[in-house]
Every structure is written in structure tokens, then in C-alpha cells.
Amino acid sequence: MKLSGGVEWAVHCCVVLTQAAEPVPAARLAELHQVSATYLAKQLQLLSRAGLVRSVQGKSGGYVLTRPPEQITTLDIVEAIEGSQSTYVCTEIRQRGPMAAPPEACTAPCAIARTMYAADRAWRAALREVTVADLCRSVGTDYDGDVMGQVGAWLSAAGS
Amino acid sequence: MKLSGGVEWAVHCCVVLTQAAEPVPAARLAELHQVSATYLAKQLQLLSRAGLVRSVQGKSGGYVLTRPPEQITTLDIVEAIEGSQSTYVCTEIRQRGPMAAPPEACTAPCAIARTMYAADRAWRAALREVTVADLCRSVGTDYDGDVMGQVGAWLSAAGS
DNA sequence: CAAACTCGGATAACTAATGTCCGAGATAAT
DNA sequence: ATTATCTCGGACATTAGTTATCCGAGTTTG
């Protein structure tokens, strides 16, 4: 029950991408965070498949957000990386063994599954409440100086 | 981000153990659910380490709940199997790379980590709300007949 | 006192996540 | 228009975690 490490990278990338008007290559994002460029590319591909970012190919290509940051929730990012399937999978063991429940009595999920699904929904609901715009705002107030602006300037700068 | 399959088995075992006054061997619980006996034993060991069940050795030994079912939450069981560590681990990538934040500015977790931790707490809070006693009650109302009583009788019965 | 049955930790097989590579495609400059 | 360069995209090794298993230590019962 551990969240993929790539989720952290992906959320950070979405936050910094709000400060870039032009496409940012994956290699540059990797340099900014000092992480494996090839593996980060994999995460960005997932974001692209989910429609959160748009990939631009060619000489001055890279990744751009497709929506305004107010319309991107952390849940969107997490589900893009981890998938939208529930964290709990019920194997219906109540229908097995000598005390097996008859299939016609198992149309609805059992009490245990209902509890797990409810917890899963609560987790997702909490993530849905926070948008990328909220995260940017928090970053602005957490530190002194215009950190977001500085990052944006660094992304636009040419060489390293 | 998938919950260990053993969690399902462990919760089911705790529910049925409420119906057994005497110790129940792991092999019998495995037979009831038609799952691997040796692997289920591993889950029960984890429950034992967490103090949720008490193991009794010897000829008529087995496992017994240590507390009344009202005092065992599903969170207790999940944490016994999966561990109590957070689902999100922050690697502090904000302190790395050319735009690294100074360590003295990173005493508190960043906005992204705070969001993830909050979601984690919401998930755990939902699980903490449901006790094993609640699950037993739900099982009683979900099906016709005294299912819980029948399972208890089967556990006490001698042969297969 | 002995035998049988129990749990407990140490040990393999397998799956999924992690990390890496090179080719297809598009853009920009020539 | 062409060429060269830079981009992403999917296919390929490697590592860690989960799943499954076995045999020895300890205890109760007859």
C-alpha cells in the first residue's frame, strides 16, 4: 500500500508548468528536480495520455498544461499515474468454502468491501478538493520571495 | 497503489473469530475461506504481532481475539497487515536541483505533501469509524438466516 | 513422560514497479 | 524544399515487493 514515487514528480511538474507559457522539455524538468530524465519521461507520457498535458514535438517542443490550473485537481494527477481503479479489490471469498454464500445473495458488495470502498472514496474526495492553483498559492505563501516566478524564469532561460 | 490481498483475508478472519469462544487454528480458517493455509498463517502472525489476536499453542490451540469486537476497527487490521506508515512518502525534491530551497526554509512539509497527508488521514479516519462489531451487524442484516451463528457452529465442529 | 498438534520465523517463486534505451515524427533553420 | 536536430513514444532490462511455501521450536493433552 505505497503510492508510486512518480506521483510526487508528476505533481511537482504540473505546479511548475503553470509558470511556463511555452513548451518545456522533459529533460529540463528532470534537471530542475534532479531526477532521472528517462523515468520522468514515462510519468509525463502518462499525464499526456490522461489529457492533462499536451506534448509538442520538434525542435522547440515539450509539455504544456491543457487546462487552467484551477481545473486540474491532485486527484486527476494521481489517477493519471496510478490509474483510477480502487485501492481495494474484493475477491468474493464469501462465495467460497464450505460456508459459501449463494451467488444470488451476492448481488451487492459485502459489508467489508463497502467499508473499504467508502474509505477509498474519502481519500479521493480529499484529493479532489485541492487544485494545482491551490498548490501554487500555498507555495507562494510558504516561502519568502517570488519562488514561482523564479522557477518560471529558469524554465524559460536557455542554457543550464 | 494497491492494497495487499491479505487484508481481505485478515478482516474476514477477525469477523468470524467473534463467533468462536475457543481458539481456532489457522488451518481451519483457511479451509473456511478456501485460501492458502500457509499464507494465511503469515497474515495471522501479523495480527498477533499487532496485538489484535492472541495465539495459543499446543494440541487444541489456535487464535482468539484479544478485545471485544467493538474495540477493533478496520483501521487496526489494515495497519496490522500493511503497516502504519503513510501511503505517500515525500523525498523532498524541492531541496534538490538548481532551484533548491534552503534547508532552513523546509522545516514544515511542502504544500504537496500536506495535501497527500490530509488525504491519507481522511482514508484512515473512514476506516477507523467502522468496527468489527459493525461489520458483524451488517452481515447479520445483509443475508437471510443466522449466518454468523452458522459459521460459529462450523468453527466449533470437530471434523471437516 | 511421550506423542501429536500448534504457532513462528526463515526460505523460494512470482509479479509489479523502477529505471533505461533507441526509433518514429515533427519543427526550425538553412 | 531540404536537412539536420531536437522532441516524444513505446519497447526492453533491472530491482524491489508481494505471494506462496517449508521446516523447526514450543506447548498442551492423554
Describe how the helices and strands are arranged:
The structure is a homodimer of 160-residue chains.
Chain A lengths: L5 H12 L8 H8 L3 H13 L3 E4 L5 E4 L8 H9 L28 H18 L3 H11 L4 H10 L4
Antiparallel strand pairs in A: 1-2
Helix pairs in contact in A: 1-3, 1-4, 1-6, 2-3
The structure holds a DNA duplex (30 and 30 nucleotides).
Molecular structure report:
The first copy, chain A, is mainly α and 160 residues long. Chain A has helices at 6-17, 26-33, 37-49, 74-82, 111-128, 132-142, 147-156; strands at residues 53-56, 62-65. Chain A has a two-stranded antiparallel ribbon with strand order 1-2. In chain A, strand 1 (53-56) and strand 2 form a beta hairpin. The longest helix of chain A has 18 residues, at 111-128. The interface between A and B is large, with 63 and 63 residues. The structure holds a DNA duplex (30 and 30 nucleotides).
Q: What are the salient characteristics of this protein?
A:
160 residues; two-stranded antiparallel ribbon; 51% helix; 5% strand; elongated; DNA-binding
